[in-house]
Structure formats: structure tokens, C-alpha cells
């Protein structure tokens, strides 16, 4: 037992086949469409329209068929690819579960995080290429030259010969009243 009777956390050491297939999809838009399709099939299990996906549909074609790894992820979720009435379709034969939907949502979060990290890295690389040389970011000789310039500047200034003095505040001083003077402490 862990602390205060809690079960110790056990982190998964390896990915399931479904998670590996979903994490291979890098397109957030594709993952979001897959999540919507799986959610609809899970929430409405008796509706046949949510258990069939026409691969000829332009939006599905772009999001699932043409996106790298997306069709493999759909097959890993339980969809089967078949020809129906001369049309290429995906059919969901088994019952969909919310666990699969949560796996897709986790893949979406992971893809968004990876995308944001890539954007930050690109911004850092772009700013490093276009940045102006900052004083002190150069070589050792540049740093020594800056230190020498600072020493010469301080030497040119007049030395401090007096300490600081307290200055009187405007008015008669602190405006403090006791509780008795304010009439609050009369028993």
C-alpha cells in the first residue's frame, strides 16, 4: 500500500497497439475527425449511419485516407475496410467503447503538444538566426573589452564622498492615532 492507503501509481511502460497507431498520426485535424466518428458510434450504437464511413467523401478522404497513419489507426480501433455497392467504406463491426474515444482524445492532446513544441523550436531557431549581437554574448575578448569600458566610465565619474541623509516628509510627521483618541476604546 502507498501513502494513506492509496494504491501506488503504476505508469504504463509500453503502448498498446491502438495507442501506437494513434500516436503515429501527426495531424490534429485527422485525430479530431476520428474522435468525432468514434464518439458518435459509441454514443449511438443502434444508429447504422454512425457505423459506416464512406472513404470517397472529400473530407474523409483528406482527413483519413491521405493522412499518414490515420487509416491504420481507424483499423486498429475496430473499423474494417470493405467494398459495399462498389464504394470503398469503413464499417464498425464490434461495439465501440468510450475507452477508445479517450485514447483518441489523448492522442489529440499529445499531437497538439508536439505541434506547439515544434512551433516554439522554430521560433527560437528563427530568432537565433535574426537576433542582433547582444553585448556580453560574444567571445572572451569582447567581454573583457566591455569590462574595461565599464571601469573607465566609473573612473570618470566623481567619487561618492557623502552618505545618504534622511529627508523630512511634508506635513507634521506621521499621522497616527490611537484607538482611545478615535473614541473606540471607551469602556
From TrEMBL:
InterPro entries in alphabetical order: PUB-like_dom_sf (IPR036339), PUB_domain (IPR018997)
Biased composition (Low complexity): 120-131
UniProt superkingdom: Eukaryota
Gene3D superfamilies, per the entry: 1.20.58.2190
Biased composition (Basic and acidic residues): 139-155
Start and end residues of each PUB domain: 30-99
PANTHER family found in the cross-reference section: PLANT UBX DOMAIN-CONTAINING PROTEIN 2
CDD domains on file: PUB
Name of the molecule in the record: PUB domain-containing protein
Amino acid at each position: 500500500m502507498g501513502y494513506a492507503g492509496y494504491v501506488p501509481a503504476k505508469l504504463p511502460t509500453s503502448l498498446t497497439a491502438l495507442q501506437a497507431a494513434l500516436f503515429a498520426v501527426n495531424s490534429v485535424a485527422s485525430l479530431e475527425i476520428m474522435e468525432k466518428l468514434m464518439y458518435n458510434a459509441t454514443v449511438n450504437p443502434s444508429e447504422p449511419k454512425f457505423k459506416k464511413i464512406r472513404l470517397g467523401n472529400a473530407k474523409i478522404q483528406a482527413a483519413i485516407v491521405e493522412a499518414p497513419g490515420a487509416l491504420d489507426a481507424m483499423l486498429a480501433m475496430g473499423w474494417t475496410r470493405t467494398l459495399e455497392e462498389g464504394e470503398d467504406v469503413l464499417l464498425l463491426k464490434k461495439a465501440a467503447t468510450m475507452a477508445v474515444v479517450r485514447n483518441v482524445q489523448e492522442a489529440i492532446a499529445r499531437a497538439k503538444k508536439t505541434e506547439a513544441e515544434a512551433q516554439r523550436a522554430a521560433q527560437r531557431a528563427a530568432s537565433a538566426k535574426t537576433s542582433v549581437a547582444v553585448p556580453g554574448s560574444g567571445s572572451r575578448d569582447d567581454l573583457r573589452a566591455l569590462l574595461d569600458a565599464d571601469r573607465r566610465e566609473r573612473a570618470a565619474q566623481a567619487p561618492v564622498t557623502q552618505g545618504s541623509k534622511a529627508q523630512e516628509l511634508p506635513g507634521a510627521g506621521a499621522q497616527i492615532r490611537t484607538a482611545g483618541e478615535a473614541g473606540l476604546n471607551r469602556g
